[in-house]
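Write out this protein's structure.
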Amino acid sequence: MCGITGHWIPRVPELAREDVLRPMMRTLHHRGPDGEGVHLDPDRGLAMGHVRLSIIGLDAGHQPIEHPDRVLTVNGEFYDYKRIRAGLAALGERFTTRSDSEIALPLHRREGLDFVHHLRGEFAFALFDRAAERLILVRDRFGIKPLYVARAEGGIVWGSEVKAILRHPAVEARPCRKAALHQMMQVMVPGTTAFEGVEGVLPGHMLVIERGGDGGLRVESRRWWDFEFPRAEDHDPDPDPETYIARTRDLLVDSIATRLEADVPVGCYLSGGIDSCAILGLASPMQQSPVKAFTIAFDHDDYDESRIAIEMAESAGADQEILRIGAADLYGDSFESTVRHAERTFYNTLAVAKWHMSRRVRACGFKVVITGEGSDELFGGYPFFKRDLLLHAGDDGADALQKALDTSNAVFRGAILAEVRQSHPAWDALCGFTPSWIQPWMLVLGAARPLLSDATADLLGDYDPIAAVAAAIDPAQVRGRHPLDIAQYTWSRTMLEGQILTWGGDRVDMANSMESRPAFLDHHLAEFATRIPPSLRIRNGVEKWVLREAARGVLPEVLHTREKFAFMAPPSHTDPEKRAGLRGLADRWMNDDAIERLGIFDVDRVRALLDRDPAERDPVESRRADILTNHLVQLHMLTPLVAGEPDPVAAGAS
């Protein structure tokens, strides 16, 4: 697991210098503290940099990897690499390293651009083909590993993180007003970032970059993988549950065993949820010694599930490390560090808690953990999926069931469940209904717009963020699908990559040089999960039913009937110390001059939000106010922290 960066600017070959590339690489040192390497080709205007976190081939994984006709830098892991290497060796291929990364070079030479279909794992990489004068930038199927690009001087600049791109002399750090509005409502348009001109390579996509006739570059984006749900009528009408349970179990066991492969110890994240408990329960019999399990415990009963995690760790014979998180841990310097690494705003300080956890993992001597991200996306685990199944799949009594659902998820209301049903014509046209997952963020948007300055509102005009997100979804992938499949697909193409795998995953883990491996996001398991009939994913109101049954033998009994828990940090309104912590950050970063300088929000309207007594709000309104305040504070600190500029907006520097 590493960091990559570089540029290809044929028109300005003199930029292919170490003094240009090295500052970009230094911004990624946390991703690769174990080594670094560069490839410079001034004749082509090409510069490629790599920083390394050694996981496999500890003493023989230096990058860039160069063959006579190709150059490669990789961030991530290619699983099954030993089998692939052996097969290629039998065909006469010779390898220069023991790294899993090197398999990409001979595969590309033999298979062309179709070689990506042979790769299993989480990865983002840059491969330059000298003979074809072609650069390809590839991102894994789900977007587990980040990769960003910017156009500059007739060329392209790339990096594992935005901050590397912003160090390039041809790229300017300019906050995007549309992106600011999206961040306030939490939902980004896929492929966009907080900064003008900087884009994310979409999950399951590659950029194919070649010389153009004008001396610049042609850039083509190609989709090479996507979630493929069957048409509604093609789902098994009379499924045998045992067939799906057994296959789910087999594929999950294989995925976990594959992700335990490393030349360093591998631990597990362990919450009290089904996903991480299943992973620990299945991983433990595969190891000769107790698995190290890392658990976060919060100081509020409504948000803490460590009791079940402790029960699970004892049952599995794991060596458990518990990190207890309180208000002092969630705000201040750790909050700012998390924003710097996330490179976008987050609505809940769970990101900060996970930043602390990755630091604890490294302090315990571990570089790798297996995690449970992706399970809810594959098996219908979120409460908004259940709501859409009840409302749109023709079940009798749906309204009564929804009312019961809303009542039992009180801490979600105002956060990830809308308390009042919403609809939008763009989503109704796309899906036949407005998915429940976006409805709470529509309400947040409604509360965020009045905070904008008049000038910003005029500049944005009639821009509709909700419609912009809908426009990024391929209609062919939702047309004719079951409502549950539609809900899962649209969430996975937006929030999985834009939230779960960024500020909830890679960015806060790699901030402390720690690799996370989400076992559920193995494409063999994912491709099977899309074919599991909806009636087995959510059965008799029980979400992730098929997964619960697949892991029944290793799960505590309480998890077989327990509803999805709120894996969020306690919001600031839940106690005075947290309120004071968030207000302290607001006072530091959002004095009146700072708000005016950023130029996006109205000072008086922001002050009214911050100064309102929490006692005047009901719980739903309090959660929404916490979301808005988190985003506001972070938008004011984002550019200075990510671009590495002096701190001109902090109150103490005014």
